[in-house]
Amino acid sequence: MISTGDLKKGVTIEFEGQLATILEWQHVKIGRGGAIVRLKLRNLRTGATIDRTCDAGDKFKRIYLDRATVTYQYQEGDQYHFMDTSTYDDVVLTSAQLGDANNYLIDNLELDIVSYDGEPLSVELPEKLVLRVTYTEPGYKGDTATGGSKPATTETGLVVQVPLFISTDDLIRVNTTTGSYVERA
């Protein structure tokens, strides 16, 4: 069991009978009343984000998730296929389970799959990823490196704001948590 005083971002708990990861939490002391804790949670099975308030001192069951290294293989309709690198088993996730992670999946990408009691829930992407720009407007004479930005479409279909000097077929490094341009690769 974990108390509200021990909660932190990224911890997985059982909340209202569902597996949930804490996205944000805030301890609030109200004038004459008792303290409360505001939680922003993400349901691991459905991907839904919920906001809840609970009393300080409440206890929750802490959930420990299993992680395994997998390689992305291919997409078939709404299903994404991964291969477990240790057992060579095929692991299938839906786009709802992946959430925004499907914007970063390229062939043979190694990443970690998160599961609970043998049930695959989601994937953990590396913090930064190198993607190829498939289309962007050309830069013009007089454009500077710090002068502005323009949209660029990557090989996965993700649209990223990049500096004006980036052109089609360039490799760029993208931050997977924010979806923003980091540097030219």
From TrEMBL:
Top-level lineage group: Bacteria
Q: Which part of the chain is the Elongation factor P C-terminal domain?
A: 129-184
Q: Which Gene3D superfamilies match?
A: 2.30.30.30, Nucleic acid-binding proteins (2.40.50.140)
Query: Could you tell me the Gene Ontology terms of the biological process aspect for this record?
Result: peptide biosynthetic process
Domain Translation elongation factor P/YeiP central, residue spans: 67-121
Pfam families in the record: EFP, EFP_N, Elong-fact-P_C
Q: Does the keyword Transport apply?
A: no
Keyword set, alphabetical order? Cytoplasm, Elongation factor, Protein biosynthesis
Tell me which GO cellular component terms the UniProt record holds: cytosol
Q: In which pathway does it act?
A: Protein biosynthesis; polypeptide chain elongation
Whether Protein biosynthesis counts among this entry's keywords is yes
Mind listing the GO molecular function terms for this protein?
translation elongation factor activity
Instruction: Write out the annotated subcellular location.
Output: Cytoplasm
Q: Which CDD domains match?
A: S1_EF-P_repeat_1, S1_EF-P_repeat_2
Q: Which InterPro entries match?
A: Elong-fact-P_C, NA-bd_OB-fold, Rib_uL2_dom2, Transl_elong_fac_P/YeiP, Transl_elong_KOW-like, Transl_elong_P/YeiP_cen, Transl_elong_P/YeiP_CS, Transl_elongation_fac_P
Q: Which family does it belong to?
A: Belongs to the elongation factor P family.
Q: What does this protein do?
A: Involved in peptide bond synthesis. Stimulates efficient translation and peptide-bond synthesis on native or reconstituted 70S ribosomes in vitro. Probably functions indirectly by altering the affinity of the ribosome for aminoacyl-tRNA, thus increasing their reactivity as acceptors for peptidyl transferase.
List the protein's name.
Elongation factor P
Source organism of the structure: Dictyobacter arantiisoli
**Primary gene name:** efp_2
